[in-house]
Amino acid sequence: MAKKKFNDHPFAYHQEIELEITTLTNLGSGLGRVALPESQISNLKSEIATQPPAAAGGWVVMVPFTLPGERVRVRVFRNQKNFSEADLLEVLTPSPHRVAARCTLFGRCGGCQYQHLAYAEQLLWKQRQVGELLKYMVGIESPVNPVIASPREYGYRSKITPHFSALRKNEGIPSGNSPDAGGSPIGFLRAGNRFELVDVPECPIATPEINAKLPEVREKTRRRLAAGEFKRDATLLLRHSSEGVTTDYDAIITEEIAVARPPSAVSPPPSLRLRFLARDFFQNNPFILPAFTGYVREQAAQTGARFLVDAYCGSGLFALAAAPAFERVAGIEISESSIRFARENAAANSIANAEFRAGDAAAIFAGLIFPPAETAVIIDPPRKGCDESFLTQLFAFGPLTVVYVSCDPATQMRDLKAFLAAGYSLAAVQPFDLFPQTRHLECVITLHRP
Helix, strand, coil proportions of the chain in percent (round to 5)? Predict the structure, then answer.
């Protein structure tokens, strides 16, 4: 039976169709096209950022967990204004790059999108998708460097945050519970669902240390649920660091990071030891950080800038990793607690040429004495990208070089248009795969002012 208010154009509810998958979207879904009568595909226009406008070649159908080159049988569950969404029923002709997923929950848990795709191909598709974002969002075609791979394909994630639902009076166990879960599901959202949880007793992309701790945390949480200690839905924290695995949001933890040697250094620098709150943002794949921070430092220093500003410095990761390549470094952060940790981290690592201060969102660069023509700026904003006020202040300051680090290339490309309009030129685009088996990636773009 069709759902209420179901739009039955061009397919009926749960209609089964066959199609060939031709590409992947930046959301990780396979995309194919189905030939329809010309009258049904008039005014067809794609809303997917990485895809060109849909042509008369067919109606777009999105199918998660499929791969380019595969012929598949699917079941339509939603017709959008100009594309349809469908569930995979059967792979009729598999891709030569299809591999067996390591996780038994793959396809149900929404955490991973690419476990069925060979890792080398994941990297190629991520590189291609960044290029498509440049083309269709920015309107330029620019070389995209090959994606820097993670040293670990699995077992890399140093932080996970499983969710659970509190049991309420006169309500049963929330939907999504597995038969052997023993109670409320503790895990992550079901793929394609914003409300239903999948019980996750083990997560292959998390570090082995987190997975060793997870059964104990789950059992303790279930006992507390049974005792009625939770009045609302909640989220757990498991964070792996030098001290082991903590579940305390307010614990002060230490992350030790090997620092790549600057070209001018005669010997490798010591590892950075950074302390911060377990709840604070920090890159969750520590195994790729030496290459990641080393590249950012090299890009910031390559034009001969003597000074560096890290405008979203947090507890000091990029600023302190880059400090050996500059005369002076200034880290700016709105969070007072993060600035305290950054200062302590500079002192603990004997880095004397870095200073940190809390910045006012309305006057971020106020009081900065570095000459713009000799200054590089690193920015690593939240997923939403830079706000207009920040960009206005950055362009008014006018640094020689900007190295823009982003966990969401789509918002990064939106901001790139503003940089180009302000007179900056795009010098390099370098993706890093901090999140193997998922659609996510970090992208570093380097911009120069003439």
Answer: 25, 25, 50
Residues in the chain: 450
Beta bridge mates, 21: 32
Q: Is residue 147 domain-shared with residue 163, that is, in the same domain? A: no
The amino acid sitting at 264 is S
Rounded Cα distance, 447 and 424, in Å: 6
Task: Domain of residue 133: give its range.
Answer: 122-153+255-448
Co-location of 267 and 314 in the same domain: yes
First to last CA, the chain: 62
Rg (CA), the chain: 24
Rounded Cα distance between 410 and 213, Å, is 35
Number of domains observed in the structure of the chain: 3
Residues 204 and 310 in one domain: no
Q: Within 13 Å, how many C-alpha atoms sit on residue 278's CB side? A: 22
Shared domain for 410 and 269, answered yes or no, is yes
Two structure tokens written together for 179: 């038969």
Return the HEC string of 237-250.
Answer: CEEEECCEEECCCC
Catalytic choice (70, 255, 442, 443)? 442
Supply 322's token pair.
């880059």
Q: Which of 103, 112, 386, 407 is catalytic?
A: 407
Task: Report if residue 23 sits inside a domain.
Answer: yes
Same domain flag for 139 and 183: no
Is 442 catalytic? The answer is yes
Say whether 47 is catalytic.
no
The answer on 330 and 269 residing in a single domain is: yes
Q: Which long-range contacts (CB under 8 A, 24 or more apart) does 113-116 make?
A: 113/27, 113/28, 113/29, 113/64, 113/65, 113/437, 113/438, 113/439, 114/28, 114/436, 114/437, 114/438, 114/439, 115/437, 116/65, 116/67
CATH label of the domain that carries residue 84: 2.40.50.140
pLDDT at 5: 79
- Divide the 450 residues of the chain into consecutive groups of 10 and give the mean pLDDT of each group: 75 95 95 81 43 61 98 96 95 98 97 98 98 96 97 98 76 43 82 92 98 98 92 95 96 90 58 94 95 97 97 95 96 91 96 92 86 97 93 96 96 97 98 98 96
Pairing outcome for strands 375-379 and 401-406: parallel
Element housing 290 (H / E): helix 289-301
Asked if 24 and 149 sit in the same domain, the reply is no
DSSP β-ladder status, 307-310 and 328-333: parallel
